[in-house]
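so im writing up the methods section and need the histidine kinase record in one place, dumping it here so i stop losing it
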Amino acid sequence: MFMFAIHIGQGTVPGVAALVLAVGLAVRRVSWQLTSVIALGAAVLQVVGPDIAYLANVAYAAFFFTLGSHRDARVRRFGLAAAGLAVAGAAAYGATRGAGEFSRSGGWATAVGLGSMCALVVGGGWLAGLLRWQSRQTVQARIDAQIEAVERRRISDLYDVEQERRRIAADMHDVVAHSWAVVAAQSDGARYALRDNPAGAEQALSVIGETARTAIADLRTIVAQLRDPALQPSTPGYEQQAELVGRMRASGMDLELVERGERDDSPLLALTAHRLLGESLTNALKHGDLDQPVRAEIDWTDGYRLTVTNHVSGVDLPDRDRSGRAVPSGHGLVGMAERTTVAGGTFSAGREGDLWVVRAHVPAYEAIPGATGDTATDGTTTEGTA
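--- predicted struct ---
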């Protein structure tokens, strides 16, 4: 209304043009198409009329700001083209009709003046809008990057939780399955030897007690880790191999253990080797024919290579994939496959005639893709039968 009051005194056309421009300003955030039509109508009204509403035309800066800051690139390009046409129109108006109004030196001076003024208003408005759009894009890019980083951390945390859950589940299975397999075998032996071989029954009960105590200690460690994730996981390794072999032999297994090469002292490899050997022997104790010997071969000449062979009778064949290879189906086999894969190795288990054969290979630490650093070895063992 202020601009209308100023321009109505100049004439009817400038006053009406000021009102039309005010309407355009009111709807510029609603529809850029409608605003463009209103702005064009106001420009045509002034060009064909006798006078120009110079002060009210400052509203064109706001119109072109809206076009320059629009999210659609086609609208921004339309605004730039419209600004060019507006400058050309202003210059043409100055060259044809403006000379008599401002000076007698010729229409070219007025054309340059009006063109420059128009370029400042519409071009400056469009450029300010473009800068506003770019600023919003920069802020949005930062926000998107922060959201993506948070999402990546969330997914990483979920992955870590899932891996920890799988590790704890595997540890629980290894401890419980191995311990109760030994306890079951020893309790049966003690029951049969109770009358005729008291000394054998006493030895079996001693093995049961020692196995139970070891299992309780392992379970306490696992429960402590569940309560306090900051605790380091238990890492049984080579030191427990002799105890494992002793328990298996005390359970009635005729175990032949052959080990070659120098052991790798990597904690991950030590834990993997202990768990793989323990689960393989536990399966042989639970499902194998203990009237026949069980052979376990450990070869350290090419990383860690484990082969456990035991006789079976009346055991169903495992599921097989399309290539005919055995597919691990039990929790123990799945756990061994996961442990081997995490360590960068390969695992297979299946029936070969009357034999059940477990094969696992974990490459040396420096041979695992992505591994860095040197791996030292500690202690040597000579080839032989334990």
